[in-house]
Amino acid sequence: MKVLVAIKRVVDYNIQVRVKADGSNVDIDGVKMGINPFDENAIEEAIRLKEKGIVSEIVAVTIGGAANQDILRHALAMGADRAMLVETQETLHSLSVAKVLKAVVEREQPNLVLLGKQAIDDDAGQTGQMLAALLKLPQATYASQLTIEGNQATVVREIDGGTETLAVSLPAVITADLRLNEPRYVKLPNLMMARKKPLENVPLDSLNVSLTHNVQQLKVATPPARPAGIMVKDVNELLSKLRTHEGIIG
After folding, report:
1. For the residues of 88-144, what is the DSSP string, one character each?
2. Were 93 and a residue from 82, 99, 106, 215 both cysteine, which residue would form a disulfide, CB within 3.0 to 4.6 Å?
3. How far is CA 90 from CA 64, 82, 133, in A?
4. Where are the beta strands (DSSP E) in the chain?
5. Can you give the residue ranges of the Electron transfer flavoprotein alpha/beta-subunit N-terminal domain (predicted)?
């Protein structure tokens, strides 16, 4: 079984991002970048399936410029067998990303496609669903547990008020939640060995994907500062303020 894992390069989750002075985008100059945390869970799950003897090959893919090679090397160091960079300098939104990944899936013919449930930069959470729709494949999103037996994947996902268990036939698209697993720590020797693993550069134009940019980013702004809290002496004062000043209690 071959698994394709789609990953994205984002600002490190420990970094507090800054907005450019002109409001055009987030300023990433000199900022530490890394693999999207949810995508790292997807890679970890693929590796665990390989360790169980279910998966024979793991292919990691990302879209972007040459700088994205660092997260592909990270995936290879974790245990991916091959990596593919679809090279483009364009900024692609969810639907365009899904169309590019569709072309990659049709080229690689994996039995399973894994990706994070969302990227922490835009929090759109759309690509996995769009990819499944374009490929006309079953999908299971927000997976917190994954079991594969034969040609069927069983996915446990959290919903409001509990959990839901889905059974989907393979090939399928599954998106990973943080609760799916705890990604392994990548050691320096593994990073060094990852340099010897295949990393393929594929120009976006070679995939013959027709992209229509229907989404335009107009402005990026920081959220308004939260007002300072108010200290109260007791519950009676709290209730009084809620009634008279905040209008919360009638």
Report:
1. --S---HHHHHHHHHHHHHHH--SEEEEES--TTT----HHHHHHHHHT--EEEEEE
2. 215
3. 7, 24, 23
4. 2-6, 9-11, 18-19, 26-27, 33-35, 57-64, 82-87, 112-116, 139-149, 152-159, 162-169, 172-176, 199-203
5. 23-211
* Contact assessment for residue 99 and residue 62, using Cβ atoms and an 8 Å cutoff: no
Please return the burial class of 107, using the count of CB atoms within 10 Å of its CB with bins 0-12, 13-18 and 19+: middle
Residue 231 pLDDT grade (very low, low, confident, very high; cuts 50, 70, 90): confident
Smallest Cα–Cα separation from 6: which of 81, 53, 72, 74?
72
8 A C-beta contact, residue 101 and residue 131: yes
**CA-based end-to-end distance of the chain:** 61
**Residue 77 CB: number of other CB atoms within 10 A?**
20
Cα distances (Å, whole numbers) of residue 151 to 54, 84, 165, 222: 11, 26, 17, 47
Cα gap 207→102, rounded to integer Å = 10
| Owner of token pair 């972007």 | 64
Q: In this structure, which CATH number among 3.30.70.100, 3.60.10.10, 3.40.50.620, 3.90.79.10 belongs to the domain 2-246?
A: 3.40.50.620
**Secondary structure letter of residue 22 according to DSSP:** T
Smallest CA-to-CA distance from 73 within 120, 33, 35 is with 35
The predicted model gives 102-124 an average pLDDT of 93
What's the pLDDT tens digit per position in 139-171?
A: 999 999 999 999 999 999 988 888 999 999 999
